[in-house]
Amino acid sequence: MRQLVVIAIIGSSFAPVLALANQGDLAPHEACHQLGEPSFPPGDLPTLAEATALQGCESDSLYYGIGVLADPVKARKCAFVERAAGHNSLFSGSGVLMMVYANGRGVHQNLDIAISLACRPGFVWEQRDRVEHLLVMKGKRSPEEYDICVHAENNMMLRACLAHSEKRRKAVRANRRAAIAAQLSVDASAELAKLERAAATFFEARALNEIDRSGHERTQYWNELWSLWEGFLTALEHLRARKLPPAVTMKEYTKANAELNEVYARLMKEVPTWEGGTVERDGIGETQRKWLIYRDAWVRFGGKIRPEVPAEMWNAWTTNERVRMLTGLLSGHGSATEPP
């Protein structure tokens, strides 16, 4: 199978590269008709040895630098391997090659090739907009950087782009997390792992159950997750710098718990009266139960990092953050989350 993939790559490498004429006057379908199938300079393709070594690669990771150093040359060669294997999506094979040639990253810029790739079957409206965008770029002396998600309007494509954005953000978070974990003891690292599992469960429930997703549902979902994880990592970094938790008195601790109980009770009473939307009482209750596990995990982890801090201070801090979340639901059924 590997040999067949390599042969397919090499066998397609000698077609002449077409030039698009009068691009300023062409409609997208006319440009696609003129260009036909994409043609690649032979020197842009991977050698037999390179193609064999790149089996199983991920061109998007190499292009964007997701978990690895960005390497546009290797990304291009990987994308050819994916394309020959039939792995053509927004973020592999032809999708990545389109961006490579449109932006001239690791290869001579060739907007004709990029446009030809954009003409391949896909979501119709995004395809038209994509070709129009590239035609405009072709007429500019210094075109802007092109990204395949710039025209993500179709729900399926929007979801794919949001999920890919999360893949990129997750890699950045992993680097920040590694810097924090490197300074922890064995016991603290074990508690951090437990805290992260509790966070993942709570954050997922929060994004699904307490954010109104009746509009662009996946946009709200991903935005909430991004906000939650960003707040979580920032809290860990503040903790490492001994900026957390804020000092509270026993009276303030008692007040925080009373406010939580009050706002939660109001939600349980008022949610059924809301019209429309996706937030429901059962979902809030499920999320609250997962938050309790998350809160206790923070208390245990905080005790490992700053044993001199009373558990009530960690409890009050996390509780006040939860009160802000639930109060936001009462006021607007939405979120401006800045969680621990």
What does this structure look like?
The chain has 340 residues and is mainly alpha-helical. It has two domains: 2-151, no CATH class; 162-332, no CATH class. 64% of the residues lie in helices and 0% in strands. Helix 1 (2-11) packs across helix 5. The two termini are 49 Å apart.
Short recap of the structure:
This protein has 340 residues and is mostly helical. The chain contains 14 helices and no strands.
Q: Ends: how far apart?
A: 49 Å
Mean pLDDT: 85
User: What structural class is derived from the secondary structure elements?
Assistant: mainly alpha
Q: Which series of helices and strands comes N to C? A: HHHHHHHHHHHHHH
For the secondary structure, the number of strands is 0
Q: Tell me the overall shape.
A: elongated
Rg measurement, Å: 26 Å
Strand content: under 5%
- Helical amount among residues, as a percent range? 55-70%
Please give the domain count: 2
Low-confidence stretches: 1-7, 10-18, 335-339
Instruction: Tell me the major beta sheet.
Output: none
